Amino acid sequence: MSNITNRETDEWLFEITPKGKLIDLNFKEIWRYRDLLWILVRRDIVTVYKQTILGPLWFVIQPLFTSVIFTLVFNGFGSLGTGSVNAFLFNMGGITIWNYFKECFVGTSDTFKKNAAIFGKVYFPRVIVPMSITVSNVLKFFIQFVIFLLFYFYFLSQGKAGIPSIFILLLPILIIAMGMMGLGLGMIISSWTTKYRDLTVAVGFGVQLLMYISAVPYSLGEIKNSNQEWVQIATPFIEYNPLTQVIEGFRNMFFGLETFNIIMLLYVIVFSFFVFFVGLVVFNKTERNFIDTV
Amino acid sequence: MNNTILKIENISKQYRLGLVGTGTLSHDLNRWWHKIRGKDDPYLKIGALNDRTTSSDSEYVWALKDINFDVAKGDIVGIIGKNGAGKSTLLKILSRVTGPTTGSIKSKGRIASLLEVGTGFHPELTGRENIYINGAILGMSKAEITSKIDEIVAFSGCERYIDTPTKRYSSGMTVRLAFAVAAHLEPDILIVDEVLSVGDAEFQKKAIGKMQDISNSDGRTVLFVSHNMAAVKSLCTRGIVLQNGKSVFDGTSTEAVDFYLNSSVGEETSSVKKINDFQNKKPFFITEVSIITSDKKGRTYVYTNEDFWIKIKYKFNEIIRKCHMTLVFKDQTGEVVLFLDRSDYYKEYYVAKKGCFESTIKIPNPLLKPGKYYISIGLANQDTNKNAHELDILSFTIKDVDSLRDSREGAIFLPVPWEITEI
């Protein structure tokens, strides 16, 4: 580049050594590759529904149909209560925020395996790839969120959406925390899968099971009131699952079924930072030599 | 004046042989156990040099061992060596695709590699969209790509298809487009690995020209890995020869190519191979094989224009009424290029008496194209189906008398008269 000339000093631009620091994130470098991030985000969104008839409509169809089925199964057959809130709207809220986490997590969890061909040939900050997946999922989330809002306002006017809470202003924090958890967990899993392939199989059904212990199709209050022994044993696990807290928090902001728990929000923030940080460390360690093991 | 742009110090790279995944967990645990007690990695000590012809008891090998060199700004360095000498590993470390096991590399410039072109092409996207993705992956900014896109498209020669999804492209077009992107990227240090083996002849010429441009006009540094000795000689200013993971020669590109060609002849072979007599109880066996030329001396190489002889010594412990004798030549890829059978010429099998015998088989030249060959010899008793053979027992090289024709295709070398008359 044009700046070769001003590098006449004896300073090295970079150094390649066997062992990196624990956190070796070169923010300057990531910043230099910011265009790549945007191009990848664009590619993600544009290519998913190429050569499909319904195209971007699929972003909407997925949560809509899932909500209908959930309402049928859990609130119809299973007669789980949703208080004063319409069951369909209740499910849609949970699914919208859950989908966002799931897509972030599943999308990033095979970063190394999926991109082995590119990673094996050129260098760029690897973390750009899971970051771009997360960013494009934030965009997809906003599309689905807008759909959710349409239904929300409709049911609100019918008086079937509870009472929105003032804590709704904290929504951005919740969204960021959820994205960080998805990204962090995804980075951890993607790093481990380079060595232990079993995890790829585990992620597929694991995330399915995770949904059921994250209070997506039911409210936490509902199971806390249960008399069944099994449910009572499971309740603390569900309650202290940070994902449960995000989903519950999201619903409480909009529906005001229970008071918003600020302590739990702090717990979620701490946990998501922790997961994100661990994810970065593990990812960073793996990216150096994964090509030899994958 | 300090002109060094790239400094490579004690670079080594260790690989684990065999199946990855079996026992990795136990090795990992063992490593970790050593680590927490402050001891060295138990698997690092036992690494043997990467010589694939001799098997070693160690599971770990050094693909690279203590590589040291500096590259000055504007150098075009050719890196040559046999397959498995460590060239690609070195480039992978340089382009930061994988990390070294020990040592360090310091660089003053941006490194970009053309390890293999076409990385990151998405089949659903158009050529234009893919130029952006590919360029960004290689480290260009969006503005940079936009300013060069016309030039890139023109260089690739794909103008007509630029707004068509690349899944409709032929493989040749994909490669051209990818190379076009990479060639317009302007790193301080460019790494090129065998890209020139793809594409048609016209495009190759264009690509070599572009590489020369890059280095000549802009004073950019190029690291070039190739098996094409002619290209290395003409393009590079400096040559480094790698052998079994070690750097064995560093000098001008012409010297390096000469060194490489000579060393690949003399490295492991002698002109005579004696086989131990421990198999004395067998009914018949081969005791010695050698290659000789017209001066009656043994040699490990012959020139394309001289005849040579293969001398084989046998011992028969019994009488064989129908003895079948074969001599097989394999090329460097293990492909059989010549299969000689004694009975083809004599129309009958050899009748072997007891005792030691020697035969000399004349191989007329020019016959085989320049390159390395391996000899295998077989003996068989047609009545009992018993046999004795020595596989790949001796290797030799056929050298070209003048220019380098190593990379030519085909198995046979035959200068023929080629008359032209006006009609």
Description:
The complex is a heterodimer of chains A (294) and B (423). Chain A has one domain (55-286). Chain A is an all-alpha fold. Chain A has helices at residues 27-32, 34-48, 58-77, 87-109, 111-114, 116-119, 128-157, 171-193, 198-212, 220-224, 229-239, 242-255, 262-293; one strand spanning 14-16. Chain A is 69% helix and 1% strand. In chain A, 39% of the residues are buried. Chain B has 2 domains: 71-265, Rossmann fold (3-Layer(aba) Sandwich), CATH 3.40.50; 278-399, Distorted Sandwich (Coagulation Factor XIII, Chain A, domain 1). In chain B, strand 7, helix 6 and strand 8 (221-225) form a beta-alpha-beta unit. Chain B starts with a strand and ends in a 24-residue tail after the last strand. The model of chain B is unreliable at 19-23 and 45-57 (pLDDT under 50). Classes of the chains: A mainly alpha (294), B alpha/beta (423). The interface between A and B is large, with 41 and 50 residues.
Element layout with pairings:
The complex is a heterodimer of chains A (294) and B (423).
Chain A lengths: L13 E3 L10 H6 L1 H15 L9 H20 L9 H23 L1 H4 L1 H4 L8 H30 L13 H23 L4 H15 L7 H5 L4 H11 L2 H14 L6 H32 L1
Helix pairs in contact in A: 2-7, 3-4, 4-7, 4-8, 4-9, 4-12, 7-8, 8-12, 8-13, 12-13
Chain B lengths: L3 E13 L7 H13 L11 E2 L10 E13 L3 E5 L6 H8 L7 E6 L3 E4 L12 H11 L4 H15 L14 H13 L5 E5 L7 H18 L2 E5 L3 H7 L2 E6 L2 E6 L1 H14 L5 E3 L9 E10 L7 E3 L4 E9 L3 E12 L4 E6 H5 L3 E3 L2 E9 L7 E11 L5 E13 L24
Parallel strand pairs in B: 2-3, 4-8, 4-9, 6-7, 7-8, 13-20
Antiparallel strand pairs in B: 1-3, 1-5, 9-10, 11-12, 12-14, 14-18, 15-16, 15-17, 15-19, 19-20
Helix pairs in contact in B: 3-4, 3-5, 4-5
Descriptive key words:
heterodimer, A: 294 residues, mainly alpha, 13 helices, 69% helix, 1% strand, B: 423 residues, alpha/beta, Rossmann fold, Coagulation Factor XIII, Chain A, domain 1, 2 domains, 6-stranded mixed sheet, 9 helices, 20 strands, globular
